[in-house]
Amino acid sequence: MVLDSLAAQLGVRKLRFGSEENLTRLLGVTRGAVSILGLVNDSNHQVELWLDRQVWEDTLFLCHPLVNTATLVLLKETMEEFLRLTGHIVLFLIRLKVGFPSERWLVGNPFPGLFING
How far apart are CA 13 and CA 79, in angstroms? Predict the structure, then answer.
């Protein structure tokens, strides 16, 4: 239900997980090892990075180093530098509670002064 609501607000018909082929082609990862660090392989900027605003507010990020047999803990500053170097921007989702079970999401970049493309 939440994904359907989010899909509607993003203007897409359906949200789904990426195929194995697309994960490998675009991010250089397999299912189970999808990681923000895969953006290093997206030199043509075909992948958009959408994060829940609450996740971005944290100071530490846990992510796979392109395989799911390990987990890295990165400082937010390190993540910002990584994104700057790859040229990716952060687009934010903000969950707005409007009464259970309904939820709405504010989508886009409501904070234009916050770290966008260097």
Answer: 31
Q: Which of 1.10.472.90, 2.60.120.10, 3.90.960.10, 3.30.930.10 is the CATH number of 2-108?
A: 3.90.960.10
For the chain, the first-to-last Cα distance in angstroms comes to 35
pLDDT tens-place string over residues 33-92: 999 999 999 999 999 898 888 889 999 999 999 999 999 999 999 999 999 999 999 988
Give the global pTM.
Answer: 0.76
